[in-house]
Amino acid sequence: MTHALENHEATVRIKDLLLRAYIGIKDEEINNQQDVLINVTLTYDASEAIIRNEINSALNYRTITKQIIAHVDGNRFALLERLTHEVLTIVMEHQAVTWAQVEIDKPHALRYSESVSISLQASR
After folding, report:
1. Is residue 78 part of a domain?
2. If you average pLDDT over residues 52-78, what whole number do you get?
3. pLDDT for the residue 29
4. Could you say which of 5, 21, 73, 95 is the most buried, measured as most Cβ atoms within 10 Å of its Cβ?
5. Distances 88 to 11, 38, 45, 117 between C-alpha atoms, Å
6. DSSP string, 40-76
7. Would you say residue 12 has pLDDT above 90?
């Protein structure tokens, strides 16, 4: 079997990862955990994974998700910007990742609003 493309850039999306954390600066936020909704989009060269059809050749997005959960769930963050940056850093620590965007929603942070979110991206 021949492979028409040399570079198979794959897009991985981790959608709606719902965790709970202490996020904010008001007393109510410091004392009570809140939901945070995390979405990660990343790209990596999946050529080896496609050719070899072996898990060791693919980016392990399960590992990335577990690292995000361990870092966020039940922990404290003053600002949504800082939390988003820290999650993006976790994703970019994986050398195979060529580009990533992290968006984190804080549901019901504002009256009359479904949520507020911060989005950051990085590339190499």
Report:
1. yes
2. 93
3. 83
4. 21
5. 16, 11, 19, 14
6. EEEEEE-HHHHHH--GGGS--HHHHHHHHHHHHTT-E
7. yes
